[in-house]
Structures are given as structure tokens and as C-alpha cells.
Amino acid sequence: TPWLCARSRWRLLCCTAIEPTWCACKRAASAASGSGPEFRDGRRVDATHCRAGRRRVGDRAGRPPRAPGPGRDVVGQGWGAGRGDGGGPREPHLPARRRDAGNVASNNRSGRALHAAACVVSAIPSHGTRDVIRRARGLLPPEATVVSATKGLEVETLLRVSEVIEDELGSDRPIAVLSGPSFAAELARGAPTAVAVAGNCEATVAAVQREFRSGYFRLYATQDLVGVEIGGAMKNVIAIAAGAVESLGLGDNCPSALITRGLAEISRLASALGGQRETLAGLSGLGDLVLTCTGQLSRNRSVGIELGKGRPLEEILGKMRAVAEGVRTTEAALALGGRHGVELPITAQMADVLAGQKTPRVAVEELMLRRQRSEVEVE
Asked: Which residue, 25, 80, 335, 364, could crosslink 74 as a Cys pair with Cβ 3.0–4.6 Å?
């Protein structure tokens, strides 16, 4: 977020087509002193008020300023841009958001961007995470925390993103995951946002909570990495289905049932993998699912809408500027469910739709004609 940019040596790592472009934030002395212009939605605003919620400088609640932290990096252009400077020509996914563009400079020397980082946020697509993390492995300080904001599964291995990072960096690396209802564009403009943060140890989670909090970004702690990541990945699959149902004009009852049964499906898989069902009732489960299934900025919902209109998947994806994680996650989640004996009927139907084997309308009909069952499952 912009408040992190204003603190010490925050750096940004943007990724286009999985080829990293390293961007360093130049704001330092001017931001620390509270000087320099700030812009919000194209308008220049009072710098003290604009920064109050982000850096605790001039906090209107009377809290003392927080000391500048060590270097931090963001990997990724969409959500990563929301967690970064929030403006400038480097971020094509958020073109309407422009904050003092002079604060961002690009350089492709990755070592220079990472060597002093205390925290690196990975917000790149799931299919590129392993490659980028592997290339960054020798550049990261051994104590640097890696925070994943990616919502997906690695198709080839069926691993969650935190598992991919651990696989590349080792089990001793502090790792955390951010997930919840958080559109990058809204986060970049300072809209109040709350997410869940999970990690491989309590100290890591507490540190991320402490360092990322602001007047518009709130984090709730949990130790359930599995639940948080499965919720973040699977909600994209259900959102594609929700978009298709919306496009078919099937009324309000149908999408409501879809979201509810989609949550049950996500919870079954998370539970089978060792996650807690309670986690899926929170921000990283229900919260993110509702937003992604109904929000106008949802890429996965948009894919579903176009599928419902009868357009081929290749054409839909060819016109998108950003990644719709649900397309790749569908097959991975279905395979993961099969490995653990978990039935995923909505996911299975969406896999057929994405493969062009049936239409969304036929998929809905087949779901409605499935064997009757109890709503509450006894484990």
C-alpha cells in the first residue's frame, strides 16, 4: 500500500508475463518528513491527512509515529501494485490510479532490489511463482519474510503457493499468506479493506499484522494456512460459475444457491487437506467468495459471464489484460479433490464447461438433477 511506500526503503518488484521488472521506490527523505505532494483520484490532497492512515504520521487518533522499517519488496503488478505505490506507468492493470510518478524508478538488477529486503510480498500469478522465487532465492537475505498474496494452486504439483515457496526457499523461511476480499484497484485508492493473514509461525503472522496495518488495511490472524489458501484458490472457480449463471439470466435464487453450495465444496476440500472449516466462514472463505462472485471488478466472474454468452474460452482469455486464476485452478482443484476422495460437483461441471465439453446451461441442469442429499455433512 502507499503507506508502506512512504516508509524507508520500500521497493517494488513488478512482473509482466513472468519476466520480472524490478522497481525501486525513490520516496525516502521527503516522505519521512511528511513533505512532497500527494494525489488521490487525480486530485492533490493534504499530505498529512493522506499519509495519516498509512504511516501513522500525523495520526489523528494521537498515536505516536512509527519508526521507519527496513526494506520491503512487492512482486506482482495487480494486487502487488495495490500494495505498492499505487501509481505510475509501471502498472497497466491499474491505469486510472496515478500517484506521484516520480517516486518509482525501474531497474532490472534484481540483487539491488532485494538484498536489503526484510519482507518480500509475492503477488504474481500462481503459474509463475516457482520460477520467480527460484530466481530470487540467492538474492534474498536469509531472515527475510516472504508474504504470498497469490490465490491459486500450482497445476503441475497441486501444491498451494506457500508450499511452492517453501519448496524453493526451505522450511526455515518465514512465510505468510494474505487472502480475503481485496480488489487491487480499491486497495490502491485507499478503500477500507480487511483480509486474513496466516503463517508458518505465530511470530511471523504477528509481524505481518504489525507492519502492514494502516487506516484502511486491517489484518486478522490465523494459523490455518491450508484453509486460507484453499479458500483463496477455490473461490475463483466458483466465481466463474457465478458469472455464467448471471449471464444466463436465471434469477436471484440460483446464484445464491451456487455461492452457498460452492462454500460447502470449498470447505470439504480444505477440511480434507487439514484446514479448519471455521476459517472458510471468515474473510478468506465466505468474504472473498461473495466478493469474487458478485463484484464488478472480478476477472473470474467476467470469464463466466462471457462463457454464458457462448464465447469460446480462448477468445475470452485473449482479450483479458490480467490473469483469471480460476481457469487454471479448476483442473488443479479437481485433481486435488480426486487425490483425497473429495467430491467437487461444481468444480467438475466447470472443468467440462472450460474444456468446451458442455454449455453452462447444461452444467446447471446436471447439478440440479444430482442425487438428493443432506445439506449438513457428518464427518
From this structure: 80
CB atoms within 10 A of CB 58: 15
The amino acid sitting at 31 is A
- Predicted local distance difference test score (pLDDT) of residue 377: 76
Active site residue 151: no
* Angle subtended at Cα 309 by Cα 328 and Cα 260, rounded to the nearest 5 degrees: 60
What pLDDT does residue 116 have? Answer: 74
pLDDT given at position 323: 82
Residues 216 and 232 in one domain: no
134/276 same-domain check: no
The total domain count for the chain is 2
Extract the C-alpha cell encoding 83: 500494495
Condensed to tens digits (0 to 9), the pLDDT of residues 185-194 reads: 999 899 999 9
> Out of 26, 151, 235, 358, which one is annotated catalytic?
235
136 pLDDT above the threshold of 70: yes
Amino acid at 309: K
CA torsion 107-149-138-117 (nearest 10°) is 60
- The whole-angstrom separation of Cα 325 and Cα 333 is 12
| Residue pointed to by grid coordinates 484497484 | 185
Per-residue pLDDT, 94: 56
